[in-house]
């Protein structure tokens, strides 16, 4: 046993890590697909709730959030090849701020990666129920079925995970491009995109104000604009499965970010501008892309149904890739002892963190069922997506703040640390990320009461986990690669 910074380390033999091995496979394109695939579902559902405050409000919110994510991704492009460990955000914060900083950052990211797939599978169920015609009461069966399928695919092996991720990501992007092309010639921006007035009322003739609710509307749109980029930051979690993380990580994460920026502004412009749809309708829709396709091709069109099935692939792409990230994130915290170490055991032959993926998925389903039955099936179905979305975004914003702070601290405390890539925006980019993430957190805490309730749930979970770490977890840490790097005073020369 050894002690450092108020924590106790337990030394383990080599067999501990042999039971927790991963396999290298990913190159640049696999990493690009992992990043884009994780986010792309946000271009199909979720972002559109911000349109309730008007198209202009959502546009400005998206510009602001784009700046935040650019700052974040350039930070990660520098940090991930410098600290190429599966821990990702936890690893960066652990090196910069010690065990407590690492734990709090890892905990917030864990909330994001456990709940984000739950949001996505909710939208998958909504799409599938609409396409197949199942009753709303059948929604939980869709959730369970998709979890079983895609956790199973991720357990089979890292090669299959990345191949499936690449294919479904390309198909999802193809679906979006098809929608862009189909919508040309059917757009009336002023009539439909601008049909929200002050107070969120519908303007039948459109031509409404750019910011119908002023700056308050922009602030209210920030959490939903996040959904257009949420989870791009998961790429560092694949560091120990990347063939050459020092070369490929910066390329993969930056290529993914610029792909998403183009797609985000295209869907924001086109989906709301299609005749017969509009910002007012999309502001409460659980299936905005499907609404757009129906307006373009007709309610009963077989082509619309086929394209809607392809649209589900966008949700599936994110669902699949974030389950991958969730497994690695829980695995890294568990391997280091922050979570119970049994969660980090990998499959004997597949070398995938199957225990972590199954455990995280069961927790997500438990949260979904608690909301579904706690609110009642009818009410739960109306707001569960928004509540879960805000819970996930709350965890993400705290994580972003801590990652950007870690970037700044490492620039100051370890200036000589080997950095294969350096962010051109440096400390300024990280500072902007911190400021915007704090503003978004503030909006969530002071915003809609129904969504604020979800944020309170996350805060309560934080308190319980902090108490666990204070009295139990910090005395059971293990010298994982992330911990050894953080403790090595000469690591800057490695």
From TrEMBL:
Keyword Transmembrane on entry: yes
Topology of the protein relative to the lipid bilayer: Multi-pass membrane protein
Superkingdom of source: Bacteria
Alphabetized GO MF terms: transmembrane transporter activity
Location (main, coarse): membrane
Localization (cell): Cell membrane
Alphabetized UniProt keyword annotations: Cell membrane, Membrane, Transmembrane, Transmembrane helix
Bilayer-spanning residue ranges: 25-44, 56-77, 113-135, 141-157, 164-182, 210-232, 253-272, 303-325, 355-375, 387-412, 424-443, 455-472
InterPro entries documented for this protein: AA/rel_permease1, APC_superfamily
The keyword Repeat belongs to this UniProt entry's keyword annotation: no
GO cellular component: plasma membrane
Coiled-coil region: none
PANTHER family (alphabetical): AMINO ACID TRANSPORTER-RELATED, MEMBRANE PROTEIN
Protein name in UniProt: Amino acid ABC transporter permease
UniProt organism field: Ahniella affigens
